[in-house]
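User: GntR family transcriptional regulator, Streptomyces gardneri:
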Amino acid sequence: MVEYRIDRRSGVATYLQIVQQTKQALRMGLLEPGDRLPTAREVVESTAINPNTVLKAYRELEREGLVEARRGLGTFVRATLGTGPADSPLRGELTDWARRARAAGLDREDVSALFTSVLKEHFEGDDA
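Assistant: Predicted structure for GntR family transcriptional regulator:
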């Protein structure tokens, strides 16, 4: 089951963080069709956010056809994204790179900014 982490300083709306983290879990193969998402109550207890925010995120995911709400049972994954890059050899290379970046004194925000700039450079104009 996915565990959401909310960054209140990111400038990204909380519901969008839930949507993005769910999509990332789908791309990484951490969530698969049939898996149940945490209930709104479980998310609220672990993140201290408003239940309506969780429901808004889940409605957005449902609108995109990625999940479906089943009354009385919960919200379940309907579709996956990507082809499972969790098993990609590139993941190991990226893990090694992240370790080197940390050893070089970069913090999480530095690494994120560097990675984002490289993504923009190489994927400019893509919808990815």
